[in-house]
Design a protein that fits this description.
Blueprint (H helix, E strand, L loop, with lengths): L1 E5 L5 H12 L7 H5 L11 E3 L5 H11 L8 E7 L8 H16 L2 E7 H4 L4 H15 L15 E8 L8 E7 L6 E8 L3 H18 L6 E5 L5 H13 L7 E6 L24 E5 L2 E4 L19 E6 L2 H4 L2 H15 L13 H12 L20
Parallel strand pairs: 1-2, 1-3, 3-4, 5-8, 8-9
Antiparallel strand pairs: 5-6, 6-7, 9-12, 10-11, 11-12
Helix pairs in contact: 3-4, 7-8
């Protein structure tokens, strides 16, 4: 691990962050003790730049002079030269283009706002940073205790930048339910053939290792139209896999406010997290919150339930055990958000591709660098 920062921050901010990560701060016990990975922090290899408006040019020059060992996983800690309140659209563009440049060199990265480093309550941010670092270095911070299931899961999320005319769609592939993702890609919303091509490639890769593939599950950010589904079905047919079940689960980003769920036996009225109810034809409400049992003493927040709908053959929809399994799968992925120690109410199968789609419009290239297709660089 090495640092990238403006020359004005090379002493105070960089040294303080180095101390926090190495020695700990308050309840945060230090990076090695927190994530239990043999991470070497190379303070003497830091990269500094002088131009706050164009850090990329200087950083690129430094990177081309570095000798990188292909057997080593590298991570760059980027200290933002401006506080979060001072950052402009140009600063965000510069930050994501630095991330893109690092990916070209096979380096993942973590951004840190400098006023966060000096915060008296920095231990909470440091814990979140440590979780993200572990995930970016191919670790698994945590997962739910569920048996693994042989299937291909595709997550598709979207994001529309304020300055863009159309929405960007990100996709991610998970080859089991253990939280490991591969194949992050991004394209414009109307590129349905590119999405189908990505799914075709993932299915071919998966089926070559697991010829007895059980099913293809797609977590989609909106109702999938026939025009979007047809190229995917054709891709499966071309691979000779037209008989495997294809299940599309629509997970609405907008939470349900017209229909809510209460637990009359709880004084807070909040149902236990993971509870779901059927509210219509193959439509469900899933409760994602921090009341993990009937005896939970503290509930951090009171989010509205998430709307879910399932598209599949009748044989799937009429099997209640399979339906429960599919909803539980959504719940599993909601608990695998590795950017923070706090649970999110949306599954990462939607959230991760959305985060990719948020960053991608700032990239100079029209494709994510190869290393970035299999790394959680966007956390």
């Amino acid at each position: 691990m090495f640092f990238i920062c403006h020359e004005d921050d090379a002493q105070d901010s960089a040294n303080l962050l180095y101390s926090h990560l190495k020695n700990g701060f308050k309840s945060f016990r230090g990076l090695k003790r927190f994530v239990r990975l043999p991470i070497s922090i190379k303070k003497d290899e830091q990269i500094t730049f002088t131009d706050k408006d164009d850090p990329l040019t200087e950083i690129r020059q430094h990177l081309t002079q570095k000798t990188l060992d292909p057997q080593v996983s590298y991570l760059a800690m980027y200290i933002h030269p401006r506080s979060k309140e001072e950052q402009t659209e140009a600063d965000r563009r510069a930050f994501y283009q630095v991330k893109e440049e690092l990916l070209k060199f096979g380096i993942t990265s973590q951004g840190v706002v400098k006023n966060t480093i000096a915060d008296p309550e920095a231990q909470f941010s440091l814990s979140n940073i440590a979780v993200a670092l572990l995930a970016k270095l191919d670790g698994i911070p945590w997962r739910l205790e569920r048996s693994t299931y042989s299937e291909l899961i595709v997550g598709v999320g979207a994001f529309k930048p304020r300055s863009a005319q159309y929405r960007y769609v990100g996709s991610a592939f998970c080859f089991s339910n253990d939280g490991r993702f591969q194949g992050f890609e991004c394209y414009s919303e109307n590129s349905t053939k590119m999405l189908a091509g990505s799914i075709r490639k993932a299915v071919r890769t998966y089926s070559s290792v697991h010829p007895d593939v059980k099913r293809l599950v797609i977590h989609f950010y909106k109702n999938m139209s026939n025009d979007e589904l047809k190229p995917i079905l054709k891709a499966l047919h071309d691979l000779g896999l037209e008989n495997i079940p294809v299940i599309v689960i629509t997970i609405n980003k907008t939470t349900s406010k017209d229909i809510v769920v209460f637990d009359s036996k709880s004084k807070d009225l909040m149902p236990v997290s993971g509870t779901f109810i059927n509210v219509g034809r193959n439509q469900f409400l899933l409760c994602n919150n921090t009341r993990y049992s009937t005896n939970s003493a503290k509930i951090d927040s009171f989010p509205f339930p998430v709307k879910i709908s399932i598209q599949a053959d009748k044989s799937v929809l009429n099997d209640q055990k399979t339906v429960r399994n599919l909803i539980d799968q959504v719940y599993q992925f909601s608990r695998m958000y590795w950017k923070s120690t706090k649970q999110q109410n949306l599954p990462v199968t939607i959230k991760y591709p959305e985060m990719v789609a948020e960053a991608f419009p700032y990239f100079k290239s029209n494709r994510i660098p190869e290393f970035g297709e299999n790394n959680l660089w966007f956390l």
